[in-house]
Amino acid sequence: xxxxxxxxxxxxxxxxxxxxxxxxxxxxxxxxxxxxxxxxxxxxxxxxxxxxxxxxxxxxxxxxxxxxxxxxxxxxxxxxxxxxxxxxxxxxxxxxxxxxxxxxxxxxxxxxxxxxxxxxxxxxxxxxxxxxxxxxxxxxxxxxxxxxxxxxxxxxxxxxxxxxxxxxxxxxxxxxxxxxxxxxxxxxxxxxxxxxxxxxxxxxxxxxxxxxxxxxxxxxxxxxxxxxxxxxxxxxxxxxxxxxxxxxxxxxxxxxxxxxxxxxxxxxxxxxxxxxxxxx
Length: 280
Known about the structure:
- GO terms for molecular function: citrate synthase activity; lyase activity.
- Belongs to the citrate synthase family.
- It comes from Billgrantia pellis.
- This is citrate synthase (unknown stereospecificity).
- The protein is mainly alpha-helical.
- The protein has helices spanning 4-14, 34-37, 43-52, 58-70, 79-89, 94-102, 112-128, 133-148, 165-178, 185-201, 209-219, 224-249, 274-278, and strands spanning 20-23, 26-29, 32-33.
- The protein has a three-stranded antiparallel β-sheet.
């Protein structure tokens, strides 16, 4: 007779997790019964609990939610939003539109937050070793440019002279630091990066949404890769809203350019295959 207990143990070990415990009539997230969480905590608290394993303090929750709220949408000119809307006009379902859009949130569109957290954390590490913020930032920027090129993620915006979301988020972090709720070091680093970029370029290169949310995620001790995942989670709200709006508006095969607009063809001038076949 096979030992079913051994088989059960092997199956249980295959998918071991500290996130959820479930059996008939019982569901626990990180040890908490779901019925105790429902109606007592908000969605941002639930995200924190699932990722971090503990519930956030009220101060942590407020900053975390502010970051999530700030990045939900940036209009159909954002590639992810445009793709979601186009997918709906091709007959896709909402889940397919969401998946198509999230799949382009990568290094250039959506990944900058992760990169800025890495930059801020490297500067913070130098400060912990004894460097002042100015010296650590100068070295951090030099190291970043040597590895990744001249573009510093999280600063400057192709559309907004000043990203309206960034000053508000940074003000919330600095107010929380004054109350002793967070350290405030990454906010100081962001200010110093901004100052040095302006000195280097001779013009303001202000903090943008990626840099501002990176300040919050770094202050809250999130590992850098999670900054990208959290941006995807946040932007999914806007993606869903636009996909649903497009479905309600209707339309078929809505491409990236308005109907009647054509691309710029720069290939070979018009020619005939007959000139080729006659010479063969």
